Amino acid sequence: MIAVPVLNLFELAQRCINAADPAEKVRLTHTVAAALQRGEISLDAAPEPLPIAEPGRPQQPLHVDPASVPRRKLGSTLGRAAFLHALAHIEFNAINLAWDAVYRFRDLPRDYYFDWAGVADEEACHFQLLRDRLCELGYDYGAFAAHNGLWETARHTAHDVVVRMALVPRVLEARGLDVTPGMIRRLRQAGDTRSAEILDIILRDEIGHVAIGTRWFSYFCAQRAWDRESAFERLVREHVTGRGPREIDRTLRAAAGFSESEMTFIESGLID
C-alpha cells in the first residue's frame, strides 16, 4: 500500500500567507480551511516558524504612509470605490494576520488553530465580496493607494501570542465594531444598498472574530496567572501609541467579550 502524505497545517498556513495573487490566496485559504474541517490536515510538529517577513501580495496597491491616503466622500462612485478599496485592503491583510496566528504560534490547543483558520476563511469571503463590489463599480483591488499598518502590528506582536491576541483582535479589529455601523448608515444614505449589505455581513462576522480574540487572550492570561483586565490595560499602555477620548459601541464590544472595566479604559482616551 502506498502511504498518502498528510498535509501539515503550519506549512499550508505559510503557503497561504506567501500567495501573492489575491484570487490564489482566497482559493488556497478556502481549500485549507475546508480540508482542516474534514480532518485531512495534521497539526503535528513542523519546522520552526521563520522570522516574520512581508506576506505575499500583488504589486498593486501601492503602499504609502497612512496620512497620505486621501479621504473621499461617499456621495460619488469614485468616493465609494476608494472607501471600499480601503476596506478590501484591510480584509486582505486580515487573511494574512489570521494565517500568521496559526503559523507562528505552536503547541497550542487544537481549537486555537481551528478558530483562526476559520477566521482566515471568513476574511477571505469578506475580501472577495468587497472586490466583487469594486468591480461592479468599475474598479478592482489595487486601483488605489493603501497603507501597511495592520501588518506592521503583526511584526510588532510576532514574539508573543498573548500580545498578538491583545493588540490585533482586541484593539485593531475591535475598532471596526465601533465605526462600521456608522459606515453602513452612510452608505444607505448615499443610496448604495449593496455595499451596506456587504458591511452588514462583515460586521456580523467581525463580532465573532473579536470574540475569538477575547477567548484566547483570556486563555493565555489564565495560563500565566494574569488578571485579564489589568493585563489588557498594561499591554495597551506598553504597545499602543496615540491617545485621545474615544466613543465605542458598548453593545457590540460586550457581544465580543469586553468587560465593563475594559470598555471604560478604552473610552478614557488611552487608545486613539
List keywords for this structure.
single chain, 272 residues, mainly alpha, two-stranded parallel ribbon, 10 helices, globular, disordered N terminus
Task: Give a summary of the structure in a few sentences.
The protein has 272 residues and is mostly helical.
Biggest β-sheet strands, sense, barrel: 2 strands, parallel
The whole-angstrom Rg is 19 Å
SS-derived structural category: mainly alpha
- Percent strand equals under 5%
In terms of per-residue confidence, which ranges show pLDDT below 50 for 5 or more consecutive residues? 1-5
N→C terminal distance: 60 Å
Helix fraction, binned, reads: 55-70%
The total number of structural domains is 1
Count helical runs: 10
**Taking strands numbered 1, 2, ... along the chain, how are they ordered across the largest sheet?**
1-2
Instruction: State the total count of DSSP E strands.
Output: 2
The geometry reads as: globular
Output mean pLDDT.
Answer: 91
The string of secondary-structure elements, in order, is EHHEHHHHHHHH
Give an overview in words.
With 272 residues, the chain is mostly helical. The protein has one domain. Helices cover 65% and strands 1% of the residues. It is built from 10 helices and 2 strands. The chain has a two-stranded parallel sheet with strand order 1-2. The longest helix has 31 residues. The radius of gyration is 19 Å and the shape is globular.
